[in-house]
Design brief:
single chain; 73 residues; mainly alpha; 0% strand; elongated
Length: 73
């Protein structure tokens, strides 16, 4: 379930990961600068993976249903 060992060239992020990335890039000012910096992309991706894993687990815990693999891996 963790994509941190995936090759950097491939884009194997699911919709939830992509949505979080897009939302972070919209953060204005200095707070959002770290999300737009290409040098910290891998660090951000690892953090985002943890965040989306937590979101998925909470959804499954509350609803009792699994998210489709297309939305979250």
């Amino acid at each position: 379930m963790n994509n941190s060992s995936a090759p950097a060239g491939g884009d194997n992020r699911d919709y939830l990961d992509k949505a979080l990335d897009a939302a972070q890039k919209k953060i204005p000012g200095k707070a959002g600068d770290r999300f737009r910096d290409p040098n910290s992309a891998q660090k951000n991706r690892a953090m985002n993976e943890k965040i989306t894993d937590f979101m998925r687990k909470q959804f499954e815990k509350i609803t009792g249903k699994k998210l489709p693999s297309k939305v979250s891996n």
